[in-house]
Amino acid sequence: MSKFKSVETKYMETREAALRALSRLHRRDFMRVSTAVLGATLARSIVNPHSFQLIQVARAQDEVLPQPGAAERALPAVAKEDAPKQDPKGGFQVAYISDSHLYDKKLNDRFVNQLMRAVDDVNALDPQPDFVLYGGDLAQLGQAVELELGAAILKNLKAPVRMMVGEHDWYLDMGEKWRELFGDPSYSFDHKGVHFVVLNSVVEKDFWTARKLTPMQRMQTVAGLDNGVQSPFSVGDAQRKWLADDLAKLPASTPLVVFSHSPLYKLYRPWNFWTEDAEQVQALLNKFKSVSVVHGHTHQVLTNRIGNINFHGMLSTAWPWPYAPEGLPPLTIQMGRADPFNPHDGLGDGVLTIHPDALIDKLYNLWNRNPITISRNYLASKGTKDRPKPPPLKSY
Amino acid sequence: MIQRTLRMGALPVLPLLLCLGCEEPKPRTASEPPPRREEPAQKPAADGVEVLLCDGKTKTVVAPGTSGTSIAGALMDEWLRKNPNRNWEAEERERHALQPAHDNGDLVQQQDVQQQTYARITPRDVLIWKVESEKLATAGSRVFHSGDELGSTIAVSCDMCHPHAANTHPETYPKFQEQLGRVALLRDMINWCLEHPVRAKPMNSDDPRMRAMEAYLYAQRKGVALDYGKR
After folding, report:
1. Is there a contact between B163 and A325 if contact means CB atoms under 8 Å apart?
2. What is the reported pTM?
């Protein structure tokens, strides 16, 4: 099923298929196989000794063998990025890339290459998504050179891009450069009957003036996930007022999708997996029958549902984060612990299939392993249907 | 500072130096080198006298007749300005929460019927144990959170993947790591991460940074049972 298989996995799959096939061999085929095996034994010096393909060749004449790759072809369309994107129920697709944390490319080419990999992924989608959501934290330290580099790379995307701001983009110059490049961080728009709202949810109370921090010290404080000096994230009074006004004119039946950098709920305060005024924001969203919130910042597969609000996390292209030691939503099926020996493990991008009811089939396109899909049925059924299997290795 | 050739008599300098010596001896901090014995070179300035701190480097210029307390204060201010990291421990602990070391305070009260020297424990002992243990772990936290300290060539630090040292599980080492082809100790995995995701040079086992980082990782896993070999 995997896009990438080790030699060992391929061997074990071939072996298993061959042994299954053996049990159904006719006598005539068995003779033929025996001859073939004899031939292989004689030619041992040139033939790979663990080749089970000989048996499969014999069987292929009679019936279709259970091939190792069969499961791959049977994957639902949504789980394969290159599969056709027609949705029978009229949904549309939005690709996402998030949390690239770019440094200047002279300093760090690693994160740059990883963002370019995500851009290639999204450009390879056929058909193209309606638009691409960039989930915030384009830069690592909010520097002009980092933001400009990110903007230049994102220009390679074929589909239009909707930008969201993250704390790493903001706290060097309080968003000056980001706004110059991408405009206002909070805005709304309508697309195919769905109302979209993009928020700046990383507003922090002033912790820097009293400490006499320089802009770079302030930025570095915010850039440390476990740095306890900074304040909790919030949407803030001004933006909540704007949000209330924006939503006031909409009927409760409007499908609503909100993009925010931090999760709009309280998960784990020490890492700012947190929005301080989450309850007030949720109260504004609650009047709608069906709401989905898509957030960055957490760099992991993260799923939650509070009332009728569904929450989905996004993957990072820079580095994966472990799961918070407490407060994990019960609906979250963890992505397996990232392999430190595999440079891109736990990273990726993905696709949101947004349905007319604003519910989302969320594809996490994890690099170097199988994709994970969190279906809308899984959330709508509160975890009783379409439950993905948990991984054997969890973060701890 | 502008040096002038104008010479002042040696006489006003000598009493000032003496005065410094007798007024408010400043407690030495760990980061200060011991005082030097040689006589500091005194160069008179235009409007005052240049005074040298016992570290042999820190200087200040005072008007003749300034009180020793003021001179000491001026020297201390100058030293503080030159040593911005003097409060590194308090600053690091404010930034990155550290698990406290075990408090052995209950041992102080216990009566030692066997009269064993080893078991004669004072509150001072308990305090030193805690302060010193936590200081090493705090030093480790500082290295762990700094790409510069780690020597990263791409400005990557350990906390990017391991906030609060999460997902490092030091209690599971030693364990066989097939990718390394041998049984790995915690420091082997630290070095693997240094060489690959962090792109820094690996550290010797007795590198002060390695010792400090091991201390930090173990400190953060306080209370977790040892379970070597666990995946």
Report:
1. no
2. 0.77
